């Protein structure tokens, strides 16, 4: 059996804060196979960075374990199997792009890799530009190049496109996409649904320190593309509908209308119109954004993680 790239078991992490302890990660179990491209998607404060820090060995879990290619993360980093592009982290403004790559490669004993990573990160045209003159997107590509120096099997990116404009984001992901074809495992955190949707094979949605959904982008999309049927219903009809559609989820009443979520909205609407006294039947479609809001807000009404008193 192949060793997973990442295996997180029962991971928890609590931080002290002025308002009391904050449980940033609240029991995460996750297995990521070699070669997968996985998006960690979640609102602000969901626990993505805290989880990534533990994956990288930058912080220690309060409980649970982290394995990276079967070893602890610090060993995996030391062996060059895992590398990261973090949100923060200094680049020196007065060096050029090429100088930066050469200096870091020198400290790694990876001088032979300089040309390869400059090309991979599409930095050739800006190799002589000073870091201070590079756009946010170019600086992230430079960090990406540095992370590629050990030719890692797994690359972890924490919100790599935060603060970039649309054009820079697009160009950054084009670079990533080209690189990912080499079979590298990629794990990235993002707030942006469209990035997760465009680039990942699998989306792990995180809210309030927990995984609230985990599936192929197609399956999350399918969940998302479910439709809501709403109608004015009397209580007896509602009972009958529940009995006929046991897979019904998310039944709520607002303004005298019942809103019913089901994978087969056509069958439900047909049933309402032909077998019940339902009035004013409407079908509303959902998009990925709706699923994201629904899945993450079930677990956190606000974007604030659970506080432990
Ligand atoms: N070092 C720390 N000390 C205190 N609280 C922390 C610390 N690091 C994280 N937290 C808190 O833990 C929670 C989870 O933070 P984390 O950065 O992991 O979330 P995130 O999903 O990465 O959010 P964002 O998308 O905003 O980066 C937040 O409430 C954050 O304020």
From TrEMBL:
GO biological process: response to antibiotic
Cellular component, GO annotation: plasma membrane
Principal location listed in the UniProt entry: membrane
CDD domains, A to Z: ABC_DR_subfamily_A
Alphabetical UniProt keywords: Antibiotic resistance, ATP-binding, Nucleotide-binding, Transport
Keyword set includes Metal-binding: no
Membrane topology: Peripheral membrane protein
The organism's place on the tree of life at top rank: Bacteria
UniProt cross-references to Pfam families, sorted A to Z: ABC_tran
Gene Ontology molecular functions: ATP binding; ATP hydrolysis activity
Subcellular location as annotated: Cell membrane
InterPro entries: AAA+_ATPase (IPR003593), ABC_transporter-like_ATP-bd (IPR003439), ABC_transporter-like_CS (IPR017871), ABC_transporter_ATP-binding (IPR050763), P-loop_NTPase (IPR027417)
Ranges where the ABC transporter domain occurs: 6-233
Presence of the UniProt keyword Nucleotide-binding in the record: yes
Protein name, as recorded: ABC-2 type transport system ATP-binding protein
